[in-house]
Amino acid sequence: MKTFSRYKNRVLARLATGIPALANRFVAAYKPHESRGEIPWVAPAKPLREAKLALVTTAGIHHSDQPPFNMLDKDGDPSFRELDGDRLFDDFTITHDYYDHADAERDPNIIFPLEPLRELVRSKTLGSLARVHYGFMGHIDGAHIGTLIEKTAREVARRLRADQVDLVLLTPA
Amino acid sequence: MGLIQREIEREGIATVGISIVRDYSEKVQPPRTVALRWPFGHPLGEPGNKAQQRAVLFEALKALYRIREPGTIIDLPFRWKRESYDDYQPPTAEELSPD
Fold it and tell me: Which end of chain B, N or C, is more open, meaning fewer C-beta atoms within 10 Å of its C-beta?
């Protein structure tokens, strides 16, 4: 039954990715957490050519030797994976049943633009690219929202800061 | 994704997110967003389309430096599979620097 439920989600994901009207119905069904209060804000201190940038994604990409995200919990999985940019594209898996990731498997730059970023470093447009990045799986709901805000996202923020990252680009599924 | 983005910004790191579902960004209110109306799974574009991926990346980085108002969402004009990026003009070094 659990395998069928995952299979059904992936079929729906493939349809939703290809048919905008269907995708809109899925989008309407998911109620995102509405933020309240002030929006956090810090201005970039350095020009891009001196800055260190890291990626954070919710597209569900991770190293094949890491545990997959939990797709059986309908409220999603708020955990993260540490991604080593030097070896990620050599051996990766995408665990995410809510979008069709065939194209991302063909060219992971479309969800995690490591190669375009390396080009920017080579051309001295970007100061440096962090080696360590972070991956989550999107589609988080219910009780896991609290975990995300208070624990896992906060932990990733701390690690990025400890790694002296100046800028972060986030990519969705 | 926007919730994660807010936590990272709260830690003192400037962030920008790419969004395919503008409605989520409007509700979650991340600090800076560039939005595209593209299929799920393709925030930077089509597999192998380097010029496209580069253009989206540059627009996101430009937004990182040029957005002034927290919560701003910039709608990018790129149409899915109907755009040529040959004439795309990347931002200048000045546009990719703090004021």
Answer: C
* CB contact (8 A) between residue A170 and residue B15: yes
Quote ipTM for the complex.
0.98
pTM (predicted TM-score): 0.92
Nearest residue, CB atoms, A148 vs list B4, B11, B14:
B4
d(CA B67, CA B31) in angstroms, rounded, equals: 9
- Closest C-alpha among B30, B21, B33, B25 to residue B63: B33
User: Mutating which of B5, B6, B7 best tests the A interface, going by the most A Cβ atoms within 10 A?
Assistant: B7
pLDDT 10s digit of each residue in chain B, 99 long?
999 999 999 999 999 999 998 988 999 999 999 999 999 999 999 999 999 999 999 999 999 999 999 999 999 999 999 899 999 999 999 999 998
